[in-house]
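Sanity check

After download, print the first record. It should look like this:
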Amino acid sequence: MVDASPVLMPTSAKQLLRDDDSLLRQVFFNVLRHHHPNTANKVDVIYALSQAWCKSKDDADFELLEKYLYNLKPEECILVASSFSHMLNLHNLTEEVANTQTERAGRMGELTLPTRSTNMSLIKLTSNSNVKPETVYETLCNQTVALVFTAHPTQAFRQSLLKKYARVRGYLDEMHNKRMSPYEKIELLEAIRAQVQAAWRTDEIRRQKPTPQDEMRHGLSYFQQTIMDMVPIFYRRVDTALANIGQPRMPLTHRLFEFGSWMGGDRDGNPNVTAGTTRDVVVLARLEAVNAYFHAVETLMFDLSMWRCSPELKALARRLAARAAAADPGRVAEERKKRNYADFWTPIAANEPFRVVLSHMRDRLWQTREVLHQCLINPQLSVKQALQDTDSYLDVQVRPASGLRRFACT
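Expected structure tokens:
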């Protein structure tokens, strides 16, 4: 849904862009001068010659720049190219932060954005386009967006660099949106310098050709760093937007998004993609889902200390608590300590029903993870049979998900 009105970056965001760009460039040049003073001088000259030509557009200025670059030695060319690559990457971070500020200004109503927010889109549909709120709700409940990850790595950056740049971006955003004391600002600038220096000292190029399993791990990193955290936030925003037009929340059984992947399954003549490869990447994807749910369950065990619950949950908690009471508490606690559980080692009493059920889910998720590890090590094992034999979760996507989403989205 796009408006015809143009987006204008607010003056404050433009100033932040210039300030952040100057800050990161200064930090990088300090790092470069410390490690490669001669290269830093050459980069400084090239930067000045480039600026001169950009301002004048004179052929003579361009020839000066061309001549200076031509006289560089091969090893100097590599360092200079790497320096400008890092500077461009850092500049991209400042643009992302400025765009974040612009988007925030749009949500605050300070300017009009070309892409409307979810809430504004639903309001305009019902008020300007005369679409009934019930129709909007039914349409959302009957659609699912399937997002499929490509089988071929299109991300040139290594994960090591992406994570460092993401931290720098987070620090810049924190610097603009959080009130800090002078000492906190100094510490934040030191953290930025540390990440910039670490990025500069990190090899930009993958020295080994990635296997299909490596591609899958790289693809799963987006689930770890973005999707698992952002999708619940988007669900909450959809629920809020629906409430603003007088509609109930989305059904817990409905998924607005589904995720798929071609990684490890593209049979287009790649000799490295075999049945064993596909099996490995499927097991890796299951492991990633289990790990995500395991951490979410442990977090919920700290949060859900309530004793009030539905009769169905109370009955389930009593059955699970009675089963757990038959075991030796000391032995159970020792076993859970060995599993590196965060807390709640001893069996939980039935007067905390949520924790009883979550404790049971945690044990099953741990068992599921162990079985999947064994299936990854031993290609001869049947994944389905191994999971069934150990009372593990067969369908990690659905069964724990409905309960977790209920609490993640309320």
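If your output differs, re-run the checksum step. Summary of this record's structure: The chain has 15 helices and two strands.
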